[in-house]
């Protein structure tokens, strides 16, 4: 069976079996080996050469000719070697203080520019944009769907043309363009939803039903743990580090290959059940539709970028949560829980709890914009 060697730098080499040597003969340099074939029955001489990897390069073997043979020959109770990247990994010792200073400065500048150019009604274009979309219909449901459609078109469109855009502008410049267009549209959509969440036709009322608040609160809390692992790479999000299209395989990716979609569905269902009106239904339909498109588009882009490696990860994972685990395609390590006991997930826990308690502040700030 042919086997390819993938190194994390990432270079791909082909392994050739070494020329057999006589027993007890010292190993010669490659340049000094005789071109005459030598036959040896010594099994030691037929072994593959020892490969070393430093702390920055992890060596993984991928069965390129027959993945089925590779998986069949492995221990059924042991997880297969990783092909993708370890998600949510954060080593404090390797962090560059200067990079995080840059991140803080960039974040401050972005928030200031966003406020002046978009949020502040006296100087920004946010209200003008909302008024223009609102003029299309008197229905809050239609306006909500149009806002989501505009955001989804820009966001997914720029993601689809990422390879071409990065070649033209560079990776960092294209990330700035991507964020600069997506962020204001996302803010406008969220603010409009907050301000009009109780408008429209009331379809049901379950807020006074015992246990509903607790169940929906827990569901909403869990939904944020399905954030796509690339959002953990804040230095790449802010273009301090060069952005990459990562192929994640551990952590939440073992449960579902598209955690952002699953998390969005959970969030939408929880809020729609709680609010129980037509505006919430419209928002959920739009957001879930956008993320279902992202499932297809995301797989397409990963296949184009990572090729064979993505096909391996795709076979081991599933779109539907836990499906690959239940049918045996995903073999969890014995210490799987450790993939979640990491700083990014602890940060998500703190931010999610903080956002819940800050809901009144967020609602008051949105209401003052009159969008």
Helix and strand arrangement:
Blueprint lengths: L3 E4 L4 E2 L45 E4 L4 H7 L23 H23 L6 H9 L5 H21 L1 H8 L1 H25 L16 H12 L10 H4 L21 H17 L2 H29 L1 H9 L6 H4 L16 H15 L1 H11 L2
Antiparallel strand pairs: 1-2, 1-3
Helix pairs in contact: 4-6, 4-10, 5-6, 6-14, 7-9, 9-10, 10-11
| Overall body shape | globular
Assembly level: single chain
Point out poorly predicted stretches.
1-70
How widely separated are the two ends?
Answer: 63 Å
| Average pLDDT, all residues | 83
In terms of DSSP E residues, the strand content is under 5%
Quickly give the structural class: mainly alpha
Number of strand segments: 3
What percentage of residues falls in helices of 4 or more residues? 40-55%
- Biggest beta sheet attributes: 3 strands, antiparallel
Helical segment count: 14
**Pattern of helices and strands:** EEEHHHHHHHHHHHHHH
Sequence of strands across the biggest β-sheet:
2-1-3
Radius of gyration: 26 Å
